[in-house]
Amino acid sequence: KAGVTQTPRYLIKTRGQQVTLSCSPISGHRSVSWYQQTPGQGLQFLFEYFSETQRNKGNFPGRFSGRQFSNSRSEMNVSTLELGDSALYLCASSQPDEKLFFGSGTQLSVL
Amino acid sequence: SQQGEEDPQALSIQEGENATMNCSYKTSINNLQWYRQNSGRGLVHLILIRSNEREKHSGRLRVTLDTSKKSSSLLITASRAADTASYFCATPGYGNNRLAFGKGNQVVVIP
């Protein structure tokens, strides 16, 4: 089986722009979670989707949003980018409530 | 806030030595997981231990769980250069968190 695929791998944006990140889960996995990783805050949970419905949401402002499509692929969007949004964004897929399989992440740099 | 906290934060050892890292958590859990992350990449699931288990082995890995002390340890025996990575513990988060990760424990194995 192919693993979790995240695109793009690297992204450079400027403040105020918006960005969309994509995640294709492992075939058959219907749960997709997103995490933000920074040196200062570590790994922080953004949101989780299951069967196109947001099941859980972390403590992030409304500028961070996501969605899941009927084929379980997921996207997350960050609007009005701030310098502090620079981070590695990780997507993970799983069967419900089981171990997570992570993609390689999207490294976002906001200038 | 982070549910898990690993200790120590950084460890440098010679190849062939054992590496031990600890994780503490705050609330009752039904399982605890350990993940490994190679530099700038996604996390890889290593092992899951349930609250009714005290010890679990997987290859050169040994995980213990002490629910009375709310702590877990990960032991890597006969370390190899390829074990150089960051290691994270993760617990089912409180509130809306899918998984809450500790801050990570960087291990460097010197050949």
Secondary structural class of chain A: mainly beta
Shape of chain B: globular
Secondary-structure element pattern of chain A, one letter each: EEEEEEEEEEE
- Provide the structure class of chain B: mainly beta
Q: Number of helical segments of chain A? A: 0
- Identify the most extensive interface between protein chains: A-B, 22 and 21 residues
Radius of gyration of chain A: 13 Å
Overall pLDDT score of chain A: 94
Proportion of helical residues of chain A: under 10%
Query: N-to-C SSE series of chain B?
Result: EEEEEEEEEEE
Q: How many angstroms does the end-to-end distance of chain A come to?
A: 37 Å
| Count of distinct strands of chain B | 11
Q: Which of globular, elongated, flat, extended, rod-shaped describes the shape of chain A?
A: globular
Helical amount among residues of chain B, as a percent range? under 10%
Structural summary, described in words:
The complex is a heterodimer of chains A (111) and B (111). The model of chain A has no long low-confidence stretch (mean pLDDT 94). With 111 residues, chain A is mainly beta. Chain A is built from no helices and 11 strands. Chain A starts with a strand and ends with a strand. In chain A, strands 2, 4, 5, 6, 9, 10 and 11 form a 7-stranded mixed sheet that branches. In chain A, strands 1-3-8-7 form a 4-stranded antiparallel sheet, with no helix packed on it. In chain A, 0% of the residues lie in helices and 54% in strands. Chain B has 111 residues and is mainly beta. Chain B has no helices and 11 strands. In chain B, strands 2, 4, 5, 9, 10 and 11 form a 6-stranded mixed sheet that branches. The termini of chain B are far apart. The model of chain B has no long low-confidence stretch (mean pLDDT 89). The chains are: A mainly beta (111), B mainly beta (111). Chains A and B meet through strand 5, strand 9 and strand 10 of A and strand 5 and strand 10 of B.
